[in-house]
Amino acid sequence: MKRRKSYTAAFKLNAVKYRDLHGTLAAANHFGVTEAMVRKWVGDRRNLQEMPAMKRARRYKKPSVEEVEYAVHDWIVKKREENRAVTVKEIRTKAKELAEEHGHQNFKASAHWCHLFMARKKLSVRRRTSVGQPLPPEHLQKCSDFRKFVAAEALNVSPFNLGNIDEVPVPFDIVYERTVDVKGRENIKIDSTGHEKSNFTVVSGVTAAGEKLKPVIILRRS
After folding, report:
1. pTM for this structure?
2. How far is it, in rounded angstroms, from Cα 200 to Cα 222?
3. How far is it, in rounded angstroms, from Cα 114 to Cα 91?
4. Which range is the signal sequence, renumbered to this chain (predicted)?
5. What is the DSSP letter of 3?
6. What burial class does residue 91 get, using C-beta atoms within 10 Å of its C-beta: 0-12 exposed, 13-18 middle, 19+ buried?
7. Assigned CATH topology for domain 66-120
8. With CB atoms 3.0 to 4.6 Å apart as the test, which of 64, 140, 183, 208 could cross-link to 159 if both were Cys?
9. What confidence tens digit (pLDDT) does each residue in 120-132 have?
């Protein structure tokens, strides 16, 4: 049986650069590899650029209990479809629970296992992002019609009498979710004044002539 050859990240990147200049077939012949390998490396260009030059294939240790990993992955996907948060600790706890159900009493859902599991399943810890309101299917036509309407109505109006305003809620206390701290410390606490959910509103405006209006601050009545 022919032994599979391993190539460094630097070798693969050189092949990718050669391909950019001379084409896939020429790169394959020049470096003694197949065209399929060159195409695969081209698709993995960004990952190769982030890897150490002498690092070889990105292989991960085969899991000892694959059925457990499949079950854990399905559990994660289901929770995320419900927009529920999933932590690394919950993954390890669930993996231990499912492993025992599958008869793997000695399975250790260690932090190292969880790291490799997430790499194999292409998972990572992400920050929550805001979700905007979906636009209706005909929004482009509505925008076009509105622009035409405004242009027609503004023909005989002075640009100093046309303007645009925006209201922005500003919290009294801005709470940071990340901070620099000693490596290895488990509990990272950041104190606040307790008013991070209390806001005031800032109104800013500008006229069509380019005149910036004085900002207005609106405080909520107690």
Report:
1. 0.37
2. 12
3. 8
4. none
5. P
6. buried
7. Arc Repressor Mutant, subunit A (1.10.10)
8. 208
9. 888 888 776 655 6
